Structures are given as structure tokens and as C-alpha cells.
Amino acid sequence: MLKRPPARSSRSREGLLGIVLILPAAVTIVAVMIIPLIFAVFASLYDYKLGRAASMPFVFLRNYTRFFHDSLALKSLWNTVLYTAVDLGLCLILGVGIAVVLNTLRPRQANFLRAVFTMPLLISPIIVALIWRYMYDPQYGFVYWLMRMVGLGDWFGGLSRPSSALVSVAVSDVWNVTPFIMLVISAGLTVVPEELYEAARIDGAGAFRIFYRITLPLLSKVLAVVVLIRGTDAFRVFDLIYGMTNGGPANSTSSLSFYAYKAAYQNNEMGYAMAISVITLLALILLFGPLMRNSAGAARGEGGR
Amino acid sequence: MSKIKIKIKIKISLAVAAVAAVALTGCSSDKEQTGGANSSGSGSRAGSGSGETLTLSRFAGPWSDASVEVLKDFTKQTGIKVRVDAIDYAQLQQKQILNMQGKTGAYDVVYVPENWYQQYIKAGYLASLDDLLKDPAVGVTVSTADYDKTAIGITSSGGKLYGLPDSTQTDLLCYDKDKFSAAGLSEPKTWDDLLAAAKYFKDHGSGIAMPARQGTAIVDMLITLAKGNDSSVITQDGKLNLTDPGVVQAAQFLQQLMQYALPGSTSWHYDETTKALQFGQAPLGVCLSGLASATENPKQSKVAGKLVYVPMPHNKSVSGYLLTWNYSVTADSKHQQDAAKLAAWLTSKDAQSKMWSLYPGPLSLRNDLFNDTAQASKFPWLPAVKEGLTNAATPPLGANAAKLFDALGAALNGNYVNHSDPASALKKVQDQLAADF
User: Fold this and answer.
1) Does B414 touch chain A (CB under 8 A)?
2) Whose CA, among A16, B252, B369, B418, lies 20 to 30 Å from A4?
3) How far apart are CA A90 and CA A170, in angstroms?
4) Strand locations in B347-388, DSSP E?
5) Which tens digit of pLDDT belongs to each residue from B281-307?
6) ipTM here
7) What is the pTM of this model?
8) Is B97 within 8 Å of A50 when comparing Cβ atoms?
9) Structure-derived torsion over alpha carbons of residues A77, A81, A87, A92, reported in degrees to the nearest 10
10) CB contact, 8 Å: A55 with chain B?
């Protein structure tokens, strides 16, 4: 008896099902992301000002060359890179550390603590900014109260000094988003086989060696995703800076997004603001694009086995 | 998977997609109902009176809440309903511009501060009020002589009036009279007086509350102090003047004063300095007159009745800072006559008196209320506001004013935190922005 070939109609139905399922998301992405992006690139080539769209001169790449001659723009770029590095580093260390520790506890204890640690994640960033703005106040802030208890009240600059303001803003963001990393890593740890840990312990491996040789390598894919998500979020920081420091003191916390906002809505230089936004996008692609490529490549490799 | 199951799955998916599409459509419909957005083009003068709804755009807060209360009287008198679109000040200008630029007709009356007028008038966003206010159909009697002359000048251009002045506020020095008396200090009138007082309290554990955060407040202080030093950051013919010796001296004075500021002042705006005064942490501080009602409210303040309000100390002449808020009719309003009626009503003596009783912060720019001694006696900061406004500086009003505030705010804040030379910081801003003025 001849074998019947696979029914094309069932494959095409599945294909149709797939298209129908992703259509709403695809339409949304095109409408709220792709079209505005195309408009932003277009507008960045003009001296576009709100209210004078009818008479905006074409300036080609002048907004882009202006960026690289603008000391405040370059300072904002540097602040953004520094902020991302500090924020991401602290989030990863704390998030992974907490997840690993919780993984060693009994399930009930771990679940309870996980719920408690997740609470900061429920607060919106602008409220986080307001909370921490007052926490950092030297007169009646909680942070300074703690610092004074250990004799560091006069030493700590908080939001008042350029040397400490950016890190202080980063700390508030770490407080807000570390729970996200903790949750993702906790989920990632569930797929690490317990036998590997047992075997390592039998072989005499200590906690650090187990973590470094077993846990981290097995978490690498999850960590790549976390770094991608968290890194791109940190790079685009705006609301914390807007709520806490307004870019000060002395522009030490001005980020690319914040600078673009000021260019657009305070100085009414929309074209320049669009150029800054496009540069931000290109910087993100440069910094985090390889991670996306690796993640996508790894997924394809696993699927093809 | 069986064919039947696949069919069911396809049907369910289509149904979910259809529901999502309907929900999205429903959301946009809802927005049209509440927002009143209508892109049908330019405004009209049609006044229809009873049953109409006008939309007023203003910033949110207790002042806005007071206006909502007062507007109930307008509705009773005219039958015209008013929807107040009150949003955060930081987003107000964007939202107004986006609506007026798009000629949506969403706003009929907009609440505009002095420094947005040139931009709005140049872009054609505002309707001229001269003919509207004389139109018998509008039915109001308004004379520009009823309002402060400088404020009228701010809302006028090319001989046409574009806004009716509502209220003003200025920066003031506030101090606790009991603490000053205990310290043997007298009222600070000059820069030297203020430095001495601030130094005394700094040496005794506190200091002066200063709004020295990177932003508009420090620039406000510089402009006021420069005026009190018979100088100005912008010359009469609109040129940037930051390297003038009088302005440099004012910046140097601010730098000296900052060394006696309460810790954290470099992150403070007016709200925080008012709080520091309210809770008794600061024996003296710079505050905004529009926020002074909080310090005099016994339910909110530990120092109610104890504060004295004086104009900012000067070097040569008493000075103040004229910050104004005004009502204007939008060019794309579909009810310009009713909108003009609303603007005139909101700036009438009765409406302003009622607003004042509900929220006694800002000072009316109507001459009859501005000079009303009975009102002044109820609000202890008003005499200082009036004294300061006899020689008031206005904020820079040109299209590039926002850039100036941004650059100066960063420069002055940078001086404080980096202990750098104010003269070179001002020169840097002058060189950077002179071409824009």
C-alpha cells in the first residue's frame, strides 16, 4: 500500500492559524513602533519644530553631526553608558545571588521570601523616583538616617553631588527591578538537574565552585535574555532622572533619553531630539545586538536537533 | 491533531482576534467622547450659549480644584458647561501645542504662563481677543485698564491682545520671626543682612532653605537678584546680558549664600523649601508666593502665623519677579465667543475673589483686587508681593527662553556643587546662546 504524502491543507491551515494569532501583535508593532520609527528617522533629517512643521528646512545629517559636537549630548551618552553598566552589574549580582540563595531554602520559605522581594517590582518607576527622592533627602531621608547611624552622614553625597548622584539613581532602579531578575533566574534554576549538584558535592566541590562551574554555565542562556532586557531598559532610563534630579546636579545624571526629551519639549527642537533618539537606538543595537543574535542562533540550533 | 480540533482552534482564534479588534475600536471611540477631539479644521466664532460645553486646559493642583468649584457659578449663570482638562504642569505645554497645532478644537480656553506667549502667538495658536471682547454677542465689558499694565503687555503682540491676565506670583524670602528675635537678628533687607542671617543659622546647626536644584528656580532667583542690583539678564532690546557686572555680582552673591544653605538644597525646588519652612526645619528660606498658603495653614504647618514674608533682599533696589498666568482663546476653538466670555468671566472681580477665598496663593492681576487692602490683610505674604512687584523683572519671553533657563540652571547648579567661578560659567552660557537672542 502506498504511503500518502502529508496533507498540504493541514500545513496551510496551521500556517493560517499562526498568521491569525500573530496578526494583532504584528499590526500593533507596525503601528506603534515601525511607523513612528520611520517618522523619527525622517524628522531627524529636518529642522523640525512643533508648530512649524509646514516650514521645516531639510538639514540632512546636520542634527547627527551636531550631536557629536555637543558636549552635553556626549556627556549624556557617557552618563547613560556608565549608568547602564552600574545598574546592570548590581542587578545581576543581587538578582542572581538572591535567586541562588532562595533555591537552597525550603519551598515554603523560598516562596514567602520571593513574594516579599518581588514587591518593589509592583511600583511604577515615577513613584519609585518620588520615594527615593525623599529617601535621599539629607534632612529627613531614610538613607541619610542610616548613614548617620554608621557615621557616614557627612561623607555621603546622595543626589546633591555629581560624584554620587548617578550611582544613587542607579541604586533606586536596582531596588525596583532586581526582583524581575530574581524571578527569571529562579525560573531558570528549576531546569538545572539536581544530580549535577549532588555529583559535584560528592566530588568535594565547594559552594562557589558549584556556582561558577555548574549554575552559571547552565544559566547562560537565561542570563543573556536578562542582560538584553535589563540592559536595554537601563540604557533608556528617563523617568527616574526626571523624577529625582532633573538631570542635575550639573548635568551629572542627564541621560540620552532625558536629553532628547529636553530638546523636544523644552527647547522645541524636535528634529534634533529625533536624531538623539535614533542614535540611542543605534547604540542599543551595537551594544546588545550580538546578544540577540546569539540567543536567536542558539534557539535555532536547539530546534534543529 | 484531528481535523475537527483544528477547525475549532481556527474559529476560536478568529473569534479572539475579532474581540480584540472590537475592543481596540471601542477604546478609540471612548477617547473621542471624553476628549472631544475633532479634526474638522479651524475655529469658529459660533456662540450657542446654553447646553454648550467648553474645554479649559490648565495645570492640575489645588488651584485647579478651586477653579472647578468657581466654574459651577459660570454654568449657573450662562448655561455653558466647562470641562477642565487639568494635567501635570510638566506636560501642559506639550499637550496644548499638540492639540492647537493639529487644530483639533479640543481646547477652547488655555491657561498660559507669560513665557509661552511669544511662541504661541507666532505659531498662530491663539485668537485675538480685541474683536471678541467687543462683540455684543459675547456680552462682556472688559477694559485692559482693569489689569496690570505689564501683564497686558506680555499677552499682547502687534497691537493685539491675546490673553487676559489672571494671577501672579513672585519669589520671596520667608523667615521665622521668633527664631530671628531669639537670635537678635533684624529683617534682612540687603544682601549683607541675608548673608549674616544665613551664616548665623548655619553656624547654629541649620541654614537657609534654597531652591538650588538644576532647573528654573535658581534662574528665577538670579533674575530677581540681578534686578535688585539694577541689572538684567536680558537687555531692553532683547539681547543676552549675562556678562554684565551686575548679573555676575548677583551670581557671586548666590554662590556665597549657598555655602549657608541647608544640606540637600542643591536637589530642592520651591516645593521642598516650602516644606522645610512648613515643618520648622528651616528658620529662613526662599519660597514662591503661590505656595505660601501651605505655610499659613495651621493644619499643615508647624509655623502658621510665625513666618514673615519680605521681598528678596537687594543690593541697590527692592525687586520682584513677575510670573503670570493668563487665559487665552484658541484659534481653533469652535466656540470662540463663548470661550471669550469664559476667559472674561474667570478674570472678573467676582470670580477672582471667590478663587482667592478657596485657594489664597497667587495674587490677582486685576488692579482693583491687587490694591484691595482688605484682601492683603488676610494673606500675610501679599504686601511683600506687591512691594516686590513695584520693580519686577519679567522672565525671558523669547522663543529661546527655555534654552536659556536650561543652560543657566545647569551652570548655576554646577557652580554650587563644583565650587566653580560664577563669572566664567555665565560667560560660557553667554557665548553659547548669545546668537539665539
Assistant:
1) yes
2) A16
3) 9
4) 363-364
5) 999 999 999 888 888 888 889 999 999
6) 0.80
7) 0.82
8) yes
9) 150
10) no
